[in-house]
Amino acid sequence: MRLSDIDITDDDIDKLCTSEDWVFDSDRRDILKNLDSIDVQACPGSGKTTLIGAKLFLLAKKWNSLHSGICVLSHTNVAKDEIINRLKNSKSPDSEKLLRYPHFIGTIQEFVDKFLALPYLRNLTNNVSLISDEELENQLSAQYWGKARFTDGKDKQLISLFHRNKLSFKNFKIVFNEKENSFSISERFFEELHKNVVPDNSRDTNYLSRRFNLIKFGFVTYSEMYAFANYVLSQTNNLSCYLQKRFPMLLIDEMQDTQKFQDDLLQTIFQNDPKKSNIQRFGDPDQAIYDSFGDGEPNSTYNNKPKAEMFRVIDRSHRFNNDIANLIKGFSFNEVELESEDEKVKSETFFNNGIEKQKHTIFLFDEGKEEDAISAFAELLKSQFNLSYLNSGNFKAKALGGVGQVRKNADEQKKKKSIINYNKNYSLDKAPKKFKPANFIEGILFARSSTINNSSTEAGNSIISDAVLKLLKLANVTCEGQKFHTIRSLKEFLNEKGKYSDFRKLVFDCLNNKIAPNKYKNTIERFLALFDLTTESDSVDFKKFLEFGDVQDGNKAIALHNNIMDIDGVKIEFSTIHGAKGETHDATLVVTTFNYIDDLTCMIEYLLKSKPTLSVPNTKLSEGRTAKPNKKFMRQLYVAMSRPKHLLCLAMPICSVSPIQKKQLIEMGWNVEVAGG
Question: Global pTM?
């Protein structure tokens, strides 16, 4: 099918807007009608997902090929699920056909696995299990390193180094060497190895064969799938042509989070040849704070693209009014002229009587008294929002910081300031994305609290499933190949036994009902019965994990485990900036944290709007950690400050703002208060 045969008109868009109750301005209409390769930058709250959904609805109506489809890729499962739900809930019957062959909607990882890496790996083994670096360590430690799989002296030495943490499992992975067109083990592995043993000449053969031997047992990490994908592309000349023919249109969501190795692979496949396929990329380079993890580098083809080179920049937000837009626009790395879609906030019913607009406040605190800023924020919330809305369950206030907590062995300089300074009970381990329950009841309570506070069961389902996986591991329950269960194998096992619906109902009960001590025993027995287990076991850790413990007050436990402070009835949740990306709050407090330098304090010139200037554009900002200011802080603070619908607040040390600067901030529209004064 040729894209040139498809023509999307204003009349098509008008009909869609009528059926879906949408409104699109001229810039958004230009994007919807364009089927060429384009890049789009969409500011926070601009309705990017709605725009992508609308484009797919319009394409679905006109797509008639039975063998060529549209490929929609995202960086995360959350973004993928949001797109899929849009299609499922559309009033257009054509939209659901995009969920079937020949179309594909998934994460970049899923695309790489399905079309490139898995077909190759199935030639090596029928037992492929994708796992994280952490899971690899757990599986190998439990199942293989401790058993007589390896017998010669070198293998025993290798095992010993892993067990003593002299070698890292995350570095013992296969990479693809493009120049030599061959596989090898990560260079970092050999750097670690040669610190502990005398180098030998067998590194490329012996260690690579050892790692491939483990793959035959089914152990493959997500990152290694890209090595196999690149190898397959290098060995199969017509594979790229096939994929371009199969997917003449590629849409990528959240492009700013895509890493360089992912971007390079997609560019290699689709080659940006308009005669074969077109690529449309959507995202916001100003919010590129998740574009690099581990050893990866951020992509440059999109994140370094200035706004003048974008097809369109959507600079009007539905989330907040122009008061907030004017306060935060200076933190846009691409210097986007941020505006509000609506001149006036349409939710004054949430405010206390007599309040026409919110009091955006900078709280100044004495060093060592960071908690004063939280108390002052709570008082401001009570004065701004009416009591019924504060207690409605829909109200969301968050305190965000760049640094969650520092390592226990960090030097005193690095311990200077983190979220813990503002909330001594804060822990990264209690954040939904990283939460690991100490016992089963803690997992249930935290899952329930996550569901209540986020109005979604997704996080709660994941937390309880993780708790069940840990329970099975402690009971030494394994699946095929004598490996511990993963989320995928758990679902497959329960489906095979006809028990998956019972499992889902049990999870639903946990998320929607309080668990008292007298009911907890029955809940545990129902979970164990799914796997033919009982509470009787020789494992001390298994029994300890099942204990109800000292949890007497479920609500108190929920608040503690969800990083929530309750100050006179006002609930404030704490999170890192990275953890809050993509969220929308009623009120947001951004607190100063320390990462070589005070992040918020070092950006004072941008708060005062003395920068950027024509002579000092943001593109000249340094990448260095100790630079003041730098690109990293700018993007983090832009993400944090663009979360609230109604009220934006900051917390800074009183010594960081001079009397003249305080006066300037007030003139700009900030309310400046001394917390605890």
Answer: 0.81
